[in-house]
Protein: SKP1 component POZ domain-containing protein
Organism: Caenorhabditis remanei
Amino acid sequence: MSAEQAPVEVPAVDAPVAEAAPAEPTVYYTLESCDGDEVKISSEAVKQSKTLNDLVSNLHGGAEMDESIPMDNIKKPALVKVV
């Protein structure tokens, strides 16, 4: 057997392609600062914060999605940094 071998062509196998799962629409929540300013945050961003996730889960259990969530002790500049 020689040290150099000719490359062997292997036929490509058509692998089954999984269909892409339909993307769920992104849900946005509106947080309202104590100044009355509103900041929108996506549900994906909310999931990254345990505090915000718990807050949204508890407050939005029966509330409409278009209602704002009051953040009574947080002014807009601080809220923007958190979000």
In short: The beta strands are 28-32, 38-42, 68-70.
